[in-house]
Amino acid sequence: MKPITIDTITQAVIDHGDGGKTHPRLYEIYTSLVSHLHAFVREVKLTESELQQGRDFLNQVSHHIEEIPTGEMHMLTDLLGISELVELLHDDQRGTEGNLEGPLYVLNASERQIGDRLGVDPEGDTLFLSGRVLELNGEPIAHALIDVWQPNSKGLYDIQDPSQPPGNFRGRFTTDASGKYAFETVVPMGYNVPASGPSGELLRLLGRHTWRAAHIHFKLSALEYTSLTTQIYIAGDPHLDSDTTFAVRSAIVELQKHEAPEKLQARNQSKPFYTTEFDFVLKSATLAETHKVTADYVYAGDSK
Ligand SMILES: [Fe+2]
To answer: Are 143 and 178 a contacting pair, CB within 8 Å?
Structure first.
């Protein structure tokens, strides 16, 4: 038996198993993670009480559900820049850039028609957002699904705010034959990430602010195209350069304000409103990512 020492313990942990025979990718990640964690412990000369503080912190991150029903683990990876780093790592610079999903996405939002209003917010400034979903070559993608969610004009999502009806400012749209989408919403406000739990306490101790720049979330999918999760940001927001999730890149839209009486009348608005446009560009999926493989197979089988 080899004695465990400060010099042998890292390799002993890595070797304690089948060497990745059953799950090679898991072993690759695990081996690197153990190596980096041990190096970190050595570098900062972690004390027993600091280790216990770390255990307590991670336990609380998982269990603090007052503001995010699933706990704060997802948010913590956003705040540490890990989520955005993963996005950057896999961005091949083609098509619309991907961006963080965040912890406040809800499945099965209401299906809505092109032009529909996304939510109720009498105090908000109305925004008409439209654009197209396109291929890399500029051709439109018809019947693409667009899942949208955003905070209201006070920076609150429906699931954080009992005063909003369930599903407020969430919806699923389908593009028309020209790849067009359009909906009416309000200008979202930037917001502070939920800060009542351990993640917020960490930011406070580090002197970090908790602001996210104003944004709207999107998930897009279409048959034979790679699905896209992204966010668009509102130009002029004071936190574009210091978003606490490090997620602001190039998808920033300028809003045009309209207040002329004829414009208000044309849009049936009683106060000034805003418009903006944003086109999404999707990449073709590899065959393995789509149903095309199956479809081709079925087609070939039918022709025999
Ligand atoms: Fe958000």
So the answer is: no
**Look-up: residue for tokens 């955003």?**
150
pLDDT the model gives residue 301: 39
Distance 290 CA to ligand 1 centre (A): 28
| pLDDT at residue 2, rounded to an integer | 77
Chunk the chain into consecutive blocks of 10 residues (it has 304) and report each block's average pLDDT, rounded to whole numbers: 91 95 97 98 98 97 89 95 93 90 90 96 97 96 97 94 95 97 98 94 98 97 94 96 95 96 94 97 77 41 37
Compute, in angstroms, the gap from residue 126 CA to the centroid of ligand 1.
18
Ligand 1 centre distance from Cα of residue 56 (Å): 27
Predicted local distance difference test score (pLDDT) of residue 295: 43
Q: What angle do CA 58, 100, 227 make, to 5 degrees?
A: 130
Q: Are the C-beta atoms of residues 126 and 263 closer than 8 Å to each other?
A: no
Q: How far is the CA of 29 from the centre of ligand 1 (A)?
A: 29
pTM (predicted TM-score) = 0.85
Q: Which residue has the tokens 């609380």?
A: 60
- The one-letter amino acid at 23: H
22 alpha carbon – ligand 1 mean position (Å): 38
How far away, in angstroms, is 188 Cα from ligand 1 center?
10
Q: 60 alpha carbon to ligand 1 midpoint, in Å?
A: 22
Cα 11 to averaged position of ligand 1 atoms, centre (Å)? 41
Distances 61 to 8, 78, 301 between C-alpha atoms, Å:
32, 13, 52
- List, in order of start, the domains of the chain with CATH numbers: 1-46 (no CATH), 75-289 (2.60.130.10)
Q: What number of residues does the chain have?
A: 304
What is the per-residue pLDDT for 298?
A: 41
271 CA from centroid of ligand 1 (Å): 26
